[in-house]
Design a protein that fits this description.
The chain has a single domain, classed as Oxidoreductase, molybdopterin-binding domain (Sulfite Oxidase, Chain A, domain 2, Alpha-Beta Complex), CATH 3.90.420.10. The N terminus is likely disordered. The relative contact order is 0.16. The strands form 2 sheets. Strands 3, 4, 7, 8, 9, 11 and 12 form a 7-stranded mixed beta sheet that branches. Strands 2-1-10-5-6 form a 5-stranded mixed beta sheet. By secondary structure, it is α+β, with helices and mostly antiparallel strands. The chain contains 8 helices and 12 strands. Bound molecules: ligand MTE. Ligand MTE binds next to loops.
Length: 315
């Protein structure tokens, strides 16, 4: 008999968007668009990549024990060093050109691929998931991402059996991103996961948020979301996925190896040299709550690390 155990972060069904409401809303949007085309009305310019895919159907397995962060708050309190080393980078990030956007999949794969981001997204099973999002600076949000499981991209890429890591890189465009003219940072922003992590159910590529394409300041057109790890692992605006047998040297690890390790799993008991991790501020609410091991996602991911006794798993 299959017994479904509700995981700690899941909320009762009634609090999720009922499917009928979702379907009606989507039907209405599609209907309005079709009516507009039929009537010969001017259609709005499609500056966003695969915008018609949103809102995506919510996957009820990934819901929350806390209210979603208000959209205005989550989209105006960001870390994106390419556009500045403070939180108010939303305006500066609008300089980023996201169309066209080529994604390269290379390294230890059957065949290297370069594909337009919109074409890639359309090949993937796009859905909505409610995730916690926790920065090592001890603030947290709750975000409705849309996108697809990273595992779907791994399968599409057909990695060779010897590949043990997936390295992900952000664009390198100092003319658009003023922060990249600060030559002392090791641009481009680079992050990585083990292949087992990349194939984990929770590892997600976000292409949308709040039922729309993901805005530039949050990492358009595609960024990683790995909610059991500190936010710096969730690399934004990815242009290259490289399969490799070498552990990638990540952006923050290159800058301060004692402060930012490769694994960076959330753990309230392991403080960062500058920030206690015991509790976190829920941005936009003024509330502090206790931090949870693996950010509350241990039932999904603890298994990944059970034999890694010699690794610094938490910072
Ligand atoms: N990705 C790139 N390319 N550049 C960055 O500076 N900052 C990271 C991560 N991804 C960063 C990045 C950090 S420190 C955090 S906490 C999250 O993005 C913030 O994501 P958000 O702004 O969408 O909340």
């Amino acid at each position: 008999m299959l017994i479904r155990i509700r995981r700690g972060w899941e909320i009762p069904e009634a609090q999720a968007t009922p499917e009928a409401v979702f379907l009606n809303r989507r039907g209405l949007l599609l209907g309005l668009g079709a009516a507009g085309i039929a009537a010969g009305l001017p259609q709005p310019a499609r500056a966003d990549i695969a915008a018609d895919l949103y809102p995506a159907k919510r996957n009820a397995a990934f819901t929350l024990d806390r209210a979603l962060t208000e959209e205005k708050v989550a989209t105006h309190y960001n870390n994106f060093y390419e556009f500045g080393s403070h939180k108010q980078i939303a305006a500066a990030a609008q300089k980023l050109t996201i169309e066209p956007w080529q994604v390269k999949i290379d390294g230890m794969v059957e065949k290297e691929i370069t594909i337009d981001a919109a074409d890639l997204i359309r090949k993937m099973p796009v859905e909505e998931r409610l995730y916690r999002h926790r920065c090592v600076e001890a603030w947290a949000m709750a975000v409705p991402w849309s996108g697809f499981p990273l595992r779907a991209l791994v399968d599409f890429a057909k990695p060779l059996s010897g590949a043990t890591y997936l390295r992900m890189e952000t664009f390198q465009r100092p003319a658009e991103a003023g922060g990249q003219r600060q030559f002392w940072y090791p641009w481009p922003y680079t992050e990585g996961l083990s292949m087992a992590e990349a194939r984990n159910d929770l590892a997600f590529i976000a292409t949308g948020v709040y039922g729309k394409p993901v805005p530039k300041q949050m990492g358009a057109p595609l960024r990683l979301a790995v909610p059991w790890k500190y936010g710096f692992k969730s690399v934004k605006s990815i242009v290259t996925f490289t399969f490799t047998d070498q552990r990638p040297k990540t952006f923050w690890e290159a800058i301060a190896p004692d402060e930012y390790g490769f694994w960076a799993n959330v753990n309230p008991a392991v403080p960062h040299p500058r920030w206690s991790q015991a509790s976190e501020e829920l941005i936009g609410t003024g509330k502090r709550v206790p931090t949870q091991i693996y950010n509350g996602y241990g039932e999904f991911v603890a298994e990944l690390y059970k034999d890694m006794t010699k690794e610094k798993l938490y910072m």
